[in-house]
Amino acid sequence: MTRVPPHSGPGRRSRGGTLTDHLVDARVPRDLHAFIASLPKAELHVHHVGSASPRIVSELAARHPDSKVPSDPEALADYFTFTDFAHFIDVYLSVVDLIRTPEDVRLLTYEVARDMARQQVRYAELTITPFSSTRRGIDERAFMDAIEDARKAAEAEFGTVLRWCFDIPGEAGLESAEETTRLATDDRLRPEGLVSFGLGGPEVGVPRPQFRPYFDRAIAAGLRSVPHAGETTGPQTVWDALVDLRAERIGHGTSSAQDPELLAHLAEHRIALEVCPTSNIATRAVPTLDEHPINEFVRAGVLVTINSDDPPMFGTDLNNEYAVAARLLDLDERGLADLAKNAVEASFLDEDGKARIRNEIDTYTAAWLAP
Ligand SMILES: Nc1ncnc2c1ncn2[C@@H]1O[C@H](CCC(=O)c2cccc(C(=O)O)c2)[C@@H](O)[C@H]1O
Ligand SMILES: [Zn+2]
């Protein structure tokens, strides 16, 4: 197995910069960017289709000219500019429509793993929405085989360990909840890599409690509960995710900062927030990075993890999200290493696997700081 060398960003724009140039913050010292690039990491909140690189999306758009997704990378960057969250979901679904065959699924999954390996991601829990693919005609058995084939190839070739989170696209209603639960709990179908069960899509008009019976079935089948909550709605949505869906982690949880009692509860019970800073700006969930509540989370003692959500769509990658966190939290190398270890702690990897990555992080950081 060969380690994929770190590289500076997710790809090169035709005008010579990288997709994240406009986000790489000059206020973060260059050597911190270098430290981050080779820092071993774990990622807990990142979406399958949302991670399709511009190259993959362009290639698939060229195969399907009937799609409204541009095949030109330059036009694609403009296409991935959103006026609000609903607009983001529309664009997201237009990319979902490009994934039409099991081979598309396998290619996408393998290439996402390659991009992660380039950023020294040792372990990732990738959120997949199987309902969105099976309802568009991809055979369920072929879908599972495609993601498992890519997962095993990526681990063998890149050393990146992938696990799956299957999530319900909440706005698609209880039909999608039933289908997602069936795919996640039927022993003849559920893939070996499946570890958790989530809930994504718009939160407005999609109350969490209605999904309790489905999360009960998923948890009874041994899956861990990790719904999105508090991304575009208030702290009550986070409370509902904790109480009704028995969430062990919260996707985003941005509005938790509005409720000191909720922050104290999250901290006391070590319920991690899967924070995705640039996502929150790109979807307009938070107006500007300087207004992001990540500092409130840290001050309250909440277990904060850093994630990229849908990196190419948001013109970022995981390394850049760590650089954003370094600036917002004023972190040095040790602070960044602690962030990386938070994600390891909050992951559903077994204890041996956690110890292995934690040791890698500590060894790397010590070597970096050695005089
Ligand atoms: N930041 C995010 N916050 C929330 N979700 C996010 C985020 N990023 C990515 N997602 C993904 O977007 C999907 C949305 C899919 C969806 O809403 C929908 C609605 C109606 C029909 C269908 C369909 O497939 O027929 C799908 C979710 O499954 C989720 O995994
Ligand atoms: Zn998400």
UniProtKB/TrEMBL annotation:
E.C. designation(s): 3.5.4.40
Cofactors that this protein relies on: Zn(2+)
Pathway: Quinol/quinone metabolism; menaquinone biosynthesis
CDD domains named in the record: ADA (cd01320)
Catalytic activity: 6-amino-6-deoxyfutalosine + H2O + H(+) = futalosine + NH4(+)
Single Gene Ontology BP annotation: menaquinone biosynthetic process
Top EC group: hydrolase
Keyword set includes Zinc: yes
Record-linked NCBIfam families: aden_deam, PRK09358.3-1
Name used for this protein in its record: Aminodeoxyfutalosine deaminase
Organism the protein comes from: Streptomyces luteolifulvus
